[in-house]
């Protein structure tokens, strides 16, 4: 079906964003206004996901011939059914069709559209105000202390619901698997004492392992963010900023993460290699230059692209084959870091701050299963693994 679609827009800064184009080839004003609001505080990937949802919503509205200001509950329930089956109500199927989208994808698309209407309600659009009073966000399981006293009218529930799939346990590595991945990138030659391979690649995975950072956060680090230990514990400052390839700090809040002496020494080795290759001359002010840059292939010292990292992961998967999980991604290091800390007895709120979660409930939702599964202690000596990790959080 034709109609609305998502359109990528290249920015003068070199980055990209997304908008929604109608059947006439012009931007849909209401959708663009909302996406511009999102761009202020959300990542490009979030804008892209919400643009996709709004494009689907406008295509559905075209089918129903209802304007976005005139929708009711019927349009929302029909939208959910259309996302699941592709049936728009003009043809009745006698046998159930196979799901077109997973329930988790349907839920994401629906929540994006509901968020659009909440934004319009805040702007005083009468139809959106009336609609959001009838459709609410689902109530979370977590309840603050004295919730029953502070909230006498209860919490709102969602009228149009999607069957949420059971949350899967985040995938993790064993310590041995992480070592295999890092050694496949670079290792120390026993005879010369020097690294063989790409120190940059190993540094990335060492950093993700010992810090729990997101890939985008690591790629956005400047040399000035890395504070090398001088008799005290080294750390990195994770600071929200735009990245040439659209990466950013997801939570939007700065934080300090202490790292190991081992990863700090590896950073020193990498920095020496960069300067030996002339990075200090080409880039000028190293403190304001990105840590992870091209060192072979492409434009020398240009920012390292996330796509190139995933190409590296694909090569490592082929090299290590059955020695590591087939579908691993860089985010597994973050899951492993959080799981290891919790298994080692670190307090949940400390882990949450270290990961940069905006709410400790997010940490609980993702990793609450750890405290209920004591058998994981048999996987590896997690106490030994985390003994060199710094758990302190800056005040």
Q: From the 3D coordinates, which CATH architecture of the largest domain would you assign?
A: Orthogonal Bundle
User: What structural category arises from helix and sheet content?
Assistant: mainly alpha
Number of domains: 2
- Backbone shape: globular
Please give the radius of gyration in angstroms: 24 Å
Q: CATH superfamily membership of the largest domain, which one?
A: Intergrase catalytic core
Helix-strand topology string: EEHHHHHHHEEHHEEEHHHHHHH
Q: What distance lies between the first and last C-alpha atoms, to the nearest angstrom?
A: 54 Å
Secondary structure layout:
Layout: E1 5-10, E2 16-21, H1 29-41, H2 44-64, H3 73-85, H4 103-122, H5 126-134, H6 147-150, H7 175-185, E3 186-188, E4 195-197, H8 199-211, H9 215-219, E5 226-227, E6 235-238, E7 255-258, H10 261-276, H11 279-283, H12 306-320, H13 331-343, H14 348-355, H15 360-367, H16 382-385
Antiparallel strand pairs: 1-2, 3-4, 5-6, 6-7
Explain this structure to me?
The protein is mainly α and 395 residues long. It is built from 16 helices and seven strands. It folds into two domains: 5-150, no CATH class; 175-385, hpI Integrase, Chain A, CATH 1.10.443.
Which features would summarize this protein structure in a list?
2 domains; hpI Integrase, Chain A; single chain; mainly alpha; 3-stranded antiparallel sheet
What is the gist of this entry?
This protein has helices at 29-41, 44-64, 73-85, 103-122, 126-134, 147-150, 175-185, 199-211, 215-219, 261-276, 279-283, 306-320, 331-343, 348-355, 360-367, 382-385, and strands at residues 5-10, 16-21, 186-188, 195-197, 226-227, 235-238, 255-258. The protein is mainly alpha-helical.
